[in-house]
Amino acid sequence: MTERIEGHGGELALAALRAHGVREMFTLSGGHVFPLYDAAYKTDFPIYDVRHEQSAVFAAEAVAKLQRRPGLAVLTAGPGVTNGISGMTSAFFNASPVLVLGGRAPAFRWGSGSLQEMDHLPLVAPVTKHAETVFSTDDIPRAVGAALHAALTPHRGPAFLDFPLETVFSVADVELPSVTGVDPIAPDPEEVGRAALLIAGAQRPVIIAGSDVYAGDAVAALREAAEALQVPVFTNGMGRGSLPPEHPLAFAKARRAALSGADVVVVVGTPLDFRLSFGDFGDAKVVHIVDAPSQRATHVQPAVAPAGDLRLILSALADHSGDRADHTDWIADLRVAEDAAKARDAAEMAAETDPIRPARIYGELRRVLAPDAITIGDGGDFVSYAGRYLEPAQPGTWLDPGPYGCLGTGMGYAMGARVSHPDRQICVLMGDGAAGFSLMDVESLVRQKLPVVIVVGNNGIWGLEKHPMRAMYGYDVAADLQPELRYDTVVSALGGAGETVAKAADLGPALQRAFDSGVPYLVNVLTDPTDAYPRSSNLA
Ligand SMILES: Cc1ncc(C[n+]2csc(CCOP(=O)(O)OP(=O)(O)O)c2C)c(N)n1
Ligand SMILES: [Mg+2]
Which of 68, 123, 322, 365 has its CA 20 to 30 A from that of 189? Predict the structure, then answer.
């Protein structure tokens, strides 16, 4: 059954968006996109608006990451779109299915110098999977469907459409095309078989599971494969929490021991990038399991790289019926290293120092965070510590900026997380430097009744840059911020609340007040500026 619909371009777009499971838009106003607002307003489709377009795209990305469905940002022509480009690029690096709809100056007088007249496509094409200008109103539903299909097809990613003014303001009568689902990519069984043989025959195998495992809904299959083949599992990105921390095969701290001792390293659903020594694990053989052939590494040659639906591949590994080596001793050795590192971390997280060190903040946070809390990292060293000391208990609860490493995700991700999970704790872990990029969007959160807790690690510096610059040059420039700045009173001025904490003993009660407050609340923790995250290796 196809549906006929008559309406202006905004109404046609919205009908197609709804049909594809889009449930809200994030935006910042501009006349070029009014018809999209008109369509939403008349049909009670939720609109969340922000104070900078980057927050709109980051919010859409958080929805996409957390809910594994398309997120939508609507940006006005010209500067609206260009302000969204870092968000689109982050979504591209993170394989997040985000659709950005842009306004565009009228086509009929293109070249005459209309307001905000620019061709967005050459800018966004390199960071999107599909970028198209829709020149006729009756073509809008098809274009929306094609863009979302591209965004949702593994390897997922953002898509972009823009509508010339007359396209989106004009009326047409069209048949809504039916929604075509995304077919799973079938892996090559021979490659999967070779991977299974390598892992089963390995003496000391390790799995590292990343974001695509969660995005591909393959968490259960990952666990089955790990249990069937008895392989220790480490995680990164949205893969964190795939195995509950108490699972006998769940590891986080013993990475260095695991990767230096392993004879087979299985990397699933994450690229062989700087976070993983570019896929160079010494003598260990590498199995790289990717969700699409495009994700096979070109800079290294893994022993085998099965490509396709991660559920299918991991389930096939779980079903491997041949002989397998015994990994009991290997797992026990890693557990010793893991427990020793955990004991060291526990001591750091309890340390009563003055000034406060970031570790203590995470020690206190662990007491108040519920297992399903969403934690969001936006900053430098302060977020590296979060990665080290917080252990997500469930998958889909940890949002970091991903390998593009863009500061400024904070309030946008927080908005998307709050909209996705109205009943959960949402906690943003923010460097004081990072706060500068998005803190004004606390106003958007206050006004739209979207409470979140923001914990600022306030060391008065761009720590992740200042310490390395000093180490390299013996001096530093452009790395200082105002010490002890009252980011909490900024949030109060914007209609939220907050407080500054300078003593470790005051942290716990302050965090409790923050989560109890029901408003955007910033806990401004004055931290030790001499404390630098140890960066001898990003595998530590
Ligand atoms: C948009 C953007 N600009 C600059 C950087 C470079 N950068 C990475 S970490 C960092 C310092 C962050 O400082 P802060 O948020 O205060 O955290 P800290 O390291 O002090 O804990 C900078 C400037 C970046 N990653 N993204
Ligand atoms: Mg800082």
Answer: 68
